[in-house]
Write a structure and sequence with these properties.
- The structure is a single chain.
- The protein starts with a helix and ends in a 5-residue tail after the last helix.
- The chain is an alpha/beta fold.
- About 30% of the residues are buried.
- The protein is built from 11 helices and 6 strands.
- Helix 4 packs parallel to helix 5.
């Protein structure tokens, strides 16, 4: 019948088109079997698992962060014991509030991995009456410009910086001689980028009043106990130094920064 003939012509045309499409794919496309993973909610841990399961797409070992261009800095990794992830977060924030914040010296950049850490560190700095500026993902352009200028010219001794702001904008923050990571960054490249800014960029000449204030605050000691290993905890009394706080629950994040052998 006419309908059967029409259906047969349509079938033959479809088969021909499909074969032509297959020929184009075979000739121009490459086999990516197993190269795609779908996750309901991408996280740094799932990204790390994907990198391990895809050798051809695996990123290089991140140990160059410490041994390479930023090797001139002193890197201190302070481990804090905790029984649960929630307790680990509280331990790091408590350590920052009690041991780090009182001893912060001029030109210190404090990096917070989450907005919760940012708010807690901001409260700790206010508790100790630390003069600081802050930049986060919700800061207006005028606020960012003013904060960067004050920090670079030593008008504000401390800058509080969120990792999400760095993720979205990659601000080139100049003027730091010490950096404190309250937690390991989710992206290892953040560690290298922020520390390299501290190493590569020259510092402006400080105002005389800033030097006087720095000297007086150092003589007071900031109320910090004098333990044998406190110098390792306070990167602000050394030039070009980094302090990173972590717990055993940060193993994967620390591995991305230091490499599997060192973490």
């Amino acid at each position: 019948s006419g309908d059967d003939a029409l259906a047969e012509r349509r079938r033959r045309r479809t088969d021909t088109d499909a074969s032509d499409d297959d020929a184009v794919v075979v000739a121009t496309a490459r086999n990516r079997a197993g190269g795609v993973r779908i996750a309901a909610l991408p996280t740094p841990d799932s990204a790390s698992a994907l990198a391990r399961s895809s050798p051809r797409r695996r990123t290089p070992d991140a140990s160059f962060v410490v041994d390479g261009p930023v090797g001139g800095c002193r890197h201190v990794f302070r481990r804090l014991d905790a029984a649960t992830p929630a307790a680990a977060s509280d331990a790091k924030l408590r350590y920052f509030r009690d041991r780090v914040a009182p001893a912060l010296a001029p030109r210190t950049l404090v990096v917070c991995a989450t907005y919760h850490d940012f708010v807690a560190c901001r409260a700790a700095l206010r508790t100790h009456a630390v003069d600081f500026v802050s930049v986060h993902e919700y800061s207006r352009a005028s606020e960012v410009s003013r904060a960067r200028s004050r920090f670079f010219h030593a008008e504000a001794p401390v800058m509080l910086y969120s990792a999400r702001a760095h993720f979205y904008h990659r601000f080139r923050l100049r003027g730091a001689v010490a950096t404190v990571f309250v937690s390991p960054p989710d992206h290892a490249v953040f560690y290298a980028e922020l520390v390299r800014l501290m190493v590569d960029k020259p510092l402006p000449r400080a105002h005389p009043q800033d030097l006087v204030q720095s000297s007086s605050s150092s003589s007071r000691g900031g109320g910090k106990p004098n333990d044998d290993d406190d110098d390792d905890d306070d990167p602000n009394r050394r030039r070009r130094s980094v302090l990173l706080l972590y717990s055993r629950f940060d193993a994967l994040a620390l591995e991305r920064v230091l490499g599997a052998a060192r973490a």
